Amino acid sequence: MPSSFHVESADGYERLMGRWSRKLAPMLIDFAGLADGDRVLDVGCGTGSLAFTLAQTSGLREIAAIDYSPVFVEAAKRANTDPRISIQQADACAMPFEDDRFDRAMSLLMLHFVPEAGKAVAEMARVVRPGGVVAAAVWDHYGGMSNMRMLWDTAVMLDGDALPLRRRYCFQPMMRPGEMKQTFIAQGLSDVEETSLLVRMDYLSFDDYWQPIAAGEGPLGRYVAGLEPDKKKAVDAAIRAAYEAGEPDGPRSFASVAWACRGRVA
């Protein structure tokens, strides 16, 4: 099943989100837990933030990673130097693994881009052995991503066409409180727990913040890239003003919160 995430380039994604997902990866791993000898599946590996963080644990037996995007798969394969890691293109809703293959399946910043996220959770549960763990994290776009809400809230003041896009962004699958927990329970997982994880997104300047978006990366970038020149110029200027907030351009730090959920396979 296709992902709704818009990919221009692996390098662009790294600037937009990869550098922050690397901060989030250790927190999801701590929440999910690990044990020596584990076989772990990374579902929606992107450029490898979670898989390569998992590889820092020497006791793991195997780390398998999949992503729907061939752009991400190619980039992750190029970056991989660990023989325990295997990376392939695959659909999270129809994974090419036998039942009970893994001890844990984790998904970092992927489920909210799957239109039928419950199917992906069911597949994660299918490929994990009884007693194993399924865990996932997604950004809280509505209440926990002030840096991106700043963009959308500014854009809708200038462009009425941004209103439905903002709604879609804020309420993607798994983003409402308790939604991921209920989905895990509905797919038969037990001992389900939901929490939130916080990281800081630190930018050196407005260009550091804006460049990957202006280049068309991700859902936000796709919207900006599609604007007519005059409207794009106005949106650019307004968002710069929001970023600077009356002070000279320079470093800014934003709190960013992700929902995280884990459950055990019966």
From TrEMBL:
Claim: Transferase is one of the keywords in the record: yes
Signal peptide per UniProt: none
One GO BP: methylation
A Pfam entry, by short name: Methyltransf_11
Gene3D superfamilies: Vaccinia Virus protein VP39
Keyword terms of this UniProt record: Methyltransferase, Transferase
The organism's place on the tree of life at top rank: Bacteria
InterPro entries, per the entry: Methyltransf_11 (IPR013216), SAM-dependent_MTases_sf (IPR029063)
Keyword Methyltransferase listed: yes
GO molecular function terms listed in the Swiss-Prot or TrEMBL record: S-adenosylmethionine-dependent methyltransferase activity
Domain named Methyltransferase type: residues: 41-135
PANTHER family: 2-METHOXY-6-POLYPRENYL-1,4-BENZOQUINOL METHYLASE, MITOCHONDRIAL (PTHR43591:SF24), METHYLTRANSFERASE (PTHR43591)
Protein name stated in the entry: Probable SAM-dependent methyltransferase protein
Organism for this UniProt entry: Rhizobium etli (strain ATCC 51251 / DSM 11541 / JCM 21823 / NBRC 15573 / CFN 42)
